[in-house]
Design a protein that fits this description.
Layout: H1 13-27, E1 35-36, H2 39-46, H3 50-62, E2 66-68, E3 74-76, H4 80-100, H5 105-120
Antiparallel strand pairs: 1-3, 2-3
Amino acid sequence: MSLKIRIDDSAPPYEQVRAQISEQARSGALPVGYRLPTVRGLAESLGLAVNTVAKAYRALEADGVIETRGRHGTYVAAAGSAAERELAAAAQAYAERARRLGLTEDAALAAVRDALRAVHGG
């Protein structure tokens, strides 16, 4: 696992950790079942506070990307289908909200594109 934290990046360090682990898990660079470093170990290797890495791990677990198995460690989860279901539900809720607000499909899609660019730094 290779992570790079950029201090000059607009994204906070915990979000950089979360995004990089999530992307590596999604792409298969971190395979399902891969054991992640401990929070303390990763924090030390990245030069971050333990709480920063813990926050990233909590967000990843909430997203279904990783799972903690008590004292046995933290692993990349087989969460593709759960993540896709959650994303589909969020998209449905967004589409319904956009319709209630009277937005056109083009305006709703433009808002999504802007949000994705902001999150992914594009």
